[in-house]
Amino acid sequence: MAGVDESRLRTWLAKYHNPEAALRDITTVVNHYQGLVPTQEPYIFNDGTMMDLVNLSGTIPVTYKGNTYNIPICIWLIDTHPKNAPICYVKPTSDMSIKASIFVDQNGKIYLPYLHDWAPGSSELLGLIQVMIVTFGDQPPVFARPKEADIPYPSNSFMPQPGGNYMAPYPPTSYPQSSGYGGYPSYPPTSNMPYPSYTPYPTPYPPYSESLC
């Protein structure tokens, strides 16, 4: 299994309900998208329950207006995988900010019909990633934060400096969320670290165009 320590992965999946199916799903993804790497980390559910889960973390190639961008994501596999849909996030780097939409909330959590309609036997990780690539190629989920030197400021020093959130959250309205273990968890432990705040003078990532508004 190129790029994957199968022995370690089997150890991580030992407590999963269907470890062989999860192993096959992960292997297929890693063979197609080498920018994603499997690892095991603790995940905290809404009810405070913590569980060690396997995730695929890294980047996927997304083509936007003829250019290919590496979009950082993290896919968490529930221990019932593939019976239940994974939990997915966009994970912006320090020089990116999240562009909230009906597909991605302000915390980076991803909402897609493919996830909402997840069906054991017909839904799998490779198909999910392909849907992400198409969706994000139409609506990029992140934009680049400008360097401080590139941010224009008013010439009058007594004028208030721009600040605050650039975008208001745009929570999904068509995909229900459940709480607690057995449904969709809230955030991984690292979510307590704040994402970069929005700037009133954003330079999108990919490059800005009216279609991103």
TrEMBL record:
Q: Which residues cross the membrane?
A: none
Q: Which InterPro entries match?
A: ESCRT-I_UEV_domain, UBQ-conjugating_enzyme/RWD, UEV_N
Q: Name one GO cellular component term.
A: ESCRT I complex
- Extract one GO molecular function annotation from the record: ubiquitin binding
PROSITE patterns, per database record:
UEV (PS51322)
Boundaries of every UEV domain copy: 3-146
User: What is any one GO biological process for this UniProt entry?
Assistant: protein transport
User: What protein name applies here?
Assistant: UEV domain-containing protein
